[in-house]
Amino acid sequence: MGSVKQLLEVEGKTFVARAVDAALASQARPIAVVVGANAREVLSAVVDRAVIAVHNPDWAEGIASSIRAGMAALVEAEPALDAVLIAPCDQPGLSAQVINSLATLHRSTGLISASRYAGRNGAPAVFGRDLFAALAALSGDEGARGMLNSGARDVASLDLPELACDLDTPSDYSAWKKR
Question: What is the CATH number of domain 5-178?
Answer without folding.
Answer: 3.90.550.10
